[in-house]
Structures are given as structure tokens and as C-alpha cells.
């Protein structure tokens, strides 16, 4: 039986940052994740994808963000159960919980935090009859290593942030980048849309709108795609390419967590955002993309905020008789997080005892 103060289900950015906030309160954390390494989607799906909305970082690769978070929480020595999925939760007589994984590993904690991101997921595939024939033979639904596309011809399909951001990034990597979108208007950030349009004007991105990829061709691997234009006056276009990457997002599923008695709304867990991001089950919280409340924004920085608020509430739940006096890390001497600062970190949390 693994015992801890806060059991975090999900080792993505929000879950990892919760370890830091809890550590400042001298609360021990243990994390469960079905993936074999920490980082969630940032590690598994797009480690080389640039992120632009992390405060203090004009641009940071998703994988580097995870590396920085792991370095930040290292002094607090969290535990990890990786490659296992949280399966069941059982409330004890004293109000604590036992969470058991699909491999039978049991975890005991007074507080459980669900930080599972989008949950388990699979890519949304376009309705192309023969697309499975070319999977791993030129068709990819996730870009893990951009250098695989160095000096190659790439066709990206999609109109959201992921399609726009990767088209911009690969414009300096691939020999040719085409972005195909079924509408004229994009769903992504305005700044990204403007960058794509600028790159299109100078010939670095072949922008094809009001059109769809409807067929794939090739003998032993992908050789070309068929693009059907919605304007009936134009004929179908055959474009040679080495890779076709449809980026239509992910189809998320909560998995076993959906059967835990939590209030679910549109595949997300309802929480009380007026106070502490607690669910309808006292002692069980949800932070990051997995939760929902009025005005919710699915941004990593919002998950960080939710983690900080949640930890304050968790501390009061674990130690109801102790008074916590908040101190900022800057005024408490915790300006760095290497080994030489461990004693300073101990001082910052003395005020809570």
C-alpha cells in the first residue's frame, strides 16, 4: 500500500505543478499515470511542439516544459506509479480514499486530485476510406519528432491551433508544406492565422482552403493525396507528398473515472470554481483540462492556477486544526530550486505548523 498526503491522478503539467505547490506546504504527493513517463500529452503526443502562452516563456517546446517542471519538483521527491491506470476509488470510514490501479497497486491518501487532462484519447480520423492502409506508411496523426520531416513534402489537414502551429513550424523544416482546410476561416489563434497567411504569401506554405483531402494513393507507401475543392468549377487536385498529417484533434474519454460517482458534463468533471475546484465528492478535486465550470478555459496556465488554489484547500482538509499563513516564495528566500536551496524551502513552510 502506497501512502501519501495527496494522490494525483495524471502526471501532465497541471499534476506536476500541483506537486510543487503542495511541496511548499510540506505535503507529500504521489502521481499515477497510464503513460510510461511523466508529462501527459506534452511528452507522449507533441514533445517538440512549441507552446506560446506559458508566462515568462515567449516560446517553449512541450517536452522542455515537462523537463523544467520535473526539475522544479525534484526537491519535493514525489512518488510515481507509471504505466498503470487508476481503476477504482473506495472511500474509507475516516474520509480518506484507496485508489487501485488496473494492475492492482493500491494507494491510500486523504486527498485525491484528478489531473487527467483529456483522459484517454484517440485521434479523430478524417472519413477517407483507405486511410488505415497508409498508417505508419506516410500517414501520421501526431507529430512527435519534427526532424522526421526534414526536406520532405508534407500535407497537413485541419483548421485549429495544432494544424496552424505545426504548419508554421514545419515551414522551416520540410521542403514543402501544404495546409488544407475545409473552410475559409480558421478556428485557431488570430496570431497563428496571420502567420500562416504571411508564410503563404511568400511561398513557404501552400494554403488550400474550402477543400478536403478525400483519397490517398501509393503502392508500398503514400505517394500523393487527392484534394477535392468545394468549388464545383475546380477539378480534383492530385498533390504529390511524402506525408499526410490530419490534425483534427483528439476524441477524449474519461475511462474508469467516469464510474466513480462524479458529476460529469460533456465528458468533463464538474467542480466548484468559486472556492477550491473540489468535485461533488468531498476530498476529491479535479484540475486542468479534465474539469469544467462556467468560464472554463482549457489552457495549461489555467491548470497551474487551479493547482495552487486546490493545494490551499487540501492543506486545510488534511490539517483542519492548523492555521496556515501564506508567504510568497520571493520574500521567503526561495528564489531558486536547486539542492543548495533546500534549507530555505524548509523555512518557508515552517509557518504552516
Automatic annotation (TrEMBL):
Binds 1 FAD per subunit. Keywords: FAD, Flavoprotein, NADP, Oxidoreductase. Residues 5-294 form the FAD/NAD(P)-binding domain. Its cofactor is FAD. It catalyses: 2 reduced [2Fe-2S]-[ferredoxin] + NADP(+) + H(+) = 2 oxidized [2Fe-2S]-[ferredoxin] + NADPH. Its EC number is 1.18.1.2. One of its GO terms (molecular function) is ferredoxin-NADP+ reductase activity. FAD binds at residues 14, 33, 41, 46, 86, 121, 289, 330. It comes from the Bacteria. Homodimer. Belongs to the ferredoxin--NADP reductase type 2 family. This is Ferredoxin--NADP reductase. It comes from Salegentibacter salinarum.
Amino acid at each position: 500500500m502506497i501512502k501519501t498526503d495527496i494522490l494525483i491522478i495524471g502526471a501532465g503539467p497541471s499534476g506536476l505543478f500541483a506537486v510543487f505547490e503542495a511541496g511548499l506546504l510540506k505535503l507529500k504527493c504521489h502521481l499515477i499515470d497510464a503513460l510510461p513517463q511523466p508529462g501527459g500529452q506534452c511528452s507522449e503526443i507533441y514533445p517538440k511542439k512549441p507552446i506560446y502562452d506559458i508566462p515568462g516563456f515567449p516560446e517553449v517546446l512541450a517536452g522542455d516544459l515537462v523537463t523544467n517542471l520535473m526539475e522544479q519538483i525534484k526537491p519535493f521527491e514525489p512518488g510515481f506509479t507509471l504505466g498503470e491506470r487508476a481503476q477504482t476509488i473506495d472511500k474509507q470510514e475516516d474520509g480518506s480514499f484507496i485508489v487501485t490501479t488496473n494492475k492492482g497497486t493500491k494507494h491510500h491518501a486523504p486527498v485525491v486530485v484528478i489531473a487527467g487532462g483529456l483522459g484517454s484519447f484517440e485521434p479523430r480520423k478524417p472519413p477517407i476510406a483507405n486511410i488505415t492502409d497508409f498508417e505508419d506508411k506516410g500517414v501520421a496523426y501526431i507529430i512527435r519528432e519534427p526532424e522526421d520531416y526534414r526536406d520532405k513534402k508534407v500535407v497537413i489537414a485541419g483548421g485549429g491551433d495544432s494544424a496552424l502551429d505545426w504548419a508554421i513550424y514545419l515551414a522551416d523544416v520540410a521542403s514543402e508544406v501544404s495546409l488544407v482546410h475545409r473552410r475559409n476561416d480558421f478556428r485557431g489563434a488570430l496570431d497563428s492565422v496571420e502567420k500562416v497567411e504571411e508564410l503563404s504569401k511568400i511561398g513557404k506554405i501552400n494554403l488550400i482552403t474550402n477543400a478536403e483531402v478525400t483519397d490517398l494513393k501509393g503502392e508500398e507507401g503514400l505517394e500523393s493525396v487527392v484534394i477535392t475543392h468545394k468549388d464545383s468549377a475546380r477539378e480534383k487536385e492530385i498533390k504529390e507528398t511524402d506525408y499526410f498529417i490530419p490534425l483534427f484533434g483528439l476524441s477524449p474519454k474519461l475511462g474508469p473515472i467516469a464510474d466513480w460517482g462524479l458529476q460529469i458534463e460533456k465528458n468533463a468533471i464538474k467542480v466548484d470554481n468559486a472556492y477550491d475546484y473540489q468535485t461533488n465528492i468531498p476530498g476529491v478535486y479535479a484540475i486542468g483540462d479534465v474539469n469544467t465550470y462556467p468560464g472554463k478555459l482549457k489552457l495549461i496556465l489555467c491548470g497551474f492556477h487551479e493547482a495552487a488554489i486546490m493545494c490551499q484547500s487540501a492543506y486545510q482538509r488534511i490539517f483542519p486544526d492548523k492555521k496556515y499563513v501564506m508567504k510568497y516564495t520571493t520574500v521567503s528566500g526561495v528564489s531558486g530550486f536547486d539542492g543548495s536551496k533546500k534549507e530555505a524551502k524548509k523555512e518557508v513552510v515552517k509557518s504552516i505548523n
